[in-house]
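Q&A log
Question type: sequence-to-structure
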Amino acid sequence: VSTQSTWEDRWGTTPLMEAQRRHQRTGEDRMHELLADLLPPVSAHPTVSRFVAIFTLWECLMIVLMGIFTKYGPDADGSANPPESVQAAISNPYPFYQDIHVMIFVGFGFLMTFLRRYGYSAVGLTLLIGSFCIQWHVLVNGFFHNLFNNHWEKISLSVTSLMVGDFAAGAVLISYGGLLGKVNPLQLLVMAIVEVALFSVNENIGLKLGITDIGGSMVIHMFGAYFGLAASLAASPPEAADSPHNAAVYHSDLFAMIGSIFLWMYWPSFNGGPGVGNTQHRAVVNTVLSMTGSCLGAFLASTFFRAEKRFSMVDVQNATLAGGVAMGTCADLLIGGGGPAIALGYISGTISVLGYVYIQPALQQTLGLHDTCGIHNLHGIPSIIGALAGVIAAGVATSEDYGASLAVSFGSMAEGRSAGKQAGHQAAFLFITLGISLVGGLATGFLLRMGFFVGPGNHFSDEDYWEVPGVETPYYFDARGEISRGAGNAVEIEVRLKALEEWRQQFITHQKLA
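Response status: OK
Response body:
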């Protein structure tokens, strides 16, 4: 009796596989219990136990430190002010904060689901890393804020501190994009520990220099992109780039578009969240116009520069968002109205597509730099464009143009700094951010390569750390591309079918003995 006709349906699924899936969901299945003694023993890589042990202790430590060194801010402390007097402190920033929260956990998470066998890790580890970074940033940023100001007090907890924690999580998730599919949860959390600390150092240097960067072109996007690129250069296994699983299918690209749409819709809140009054208003208007420009630029450039002369989902998922990155530094500034805002977005969207078509392959061929999500094209290059736009906007700023809002957008200029010096400080911080992110990312990448942190080499696949369906073809199959990807997948399926046949023979023997 053939295995195909008796044990498998048209998708290659067997009763045993279905029993395993049911058991995982409900906790009880008679067929699973009957065949449990025939299943191979469950074995986990040592990095799993190390991950649990290290970060259980780390979380316990953070609970203790939070209890000792944090306090409610004045607007959240019930003893400081009556509730009605501080209503604006929560009602004004909270809608922006929630939009940013959606961007971090839904936008970034689903944007990275394009890998056909890595969707669980894309969304699930985004939730894990984002939650961890918020906690860790509250502590470490509070420490460095006190250190840089030489004034020691407890760390205040407020919606603003949580919003900045989301920004730190965004920088780490940008870096994760460069390493997507090539690192395990233990390596990812180790990277988050180091990166959030260096992110806080860089952030406080920017505050000391008095730079303006409301939407984080430099603080968030540039730092996260070049930290991730340097870490990927040092930590990515050479064989990972040639993995047959480093690929998308129709439905995985469609899921990734969910992330893109959420990011595109909520990016004005990301850039405008830290602002107030008319600066916040300008940030929203400038960002929306810039995003429309990058959307048009990305679609047009995709059809023009791609050899197929068709829209590419890689470009549509990513380059359409480049306008939000590029507008980050000067979102709240007077940049001359809608024309320059749209132009900045259009230029950044077009150059982002050029990055995907030409620059990314060149970097991989010359440097061996494998960038899974193309963070250099979406976050790196547009952040440099945005930083340079910020230098120009600062250099032409005048008190007559800004009036009372000068103190909000350029606090140091309101205290007497000239526009030329402000532009110089903006340019200096660009190079400081590049330096800290590249050196820090490279050192972190070498740390992640240590044998203690390295997991199994099953790259771009959820199977090592998640419960996933067995050889169920719809899990990642696409008839348009799967068959043409070579013999690697056929060999894998053949091995699994042989294992199933062995289990079947053991089951028949078990029945005869019974």
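Response note: The chain has a mean pLDDT of 87.
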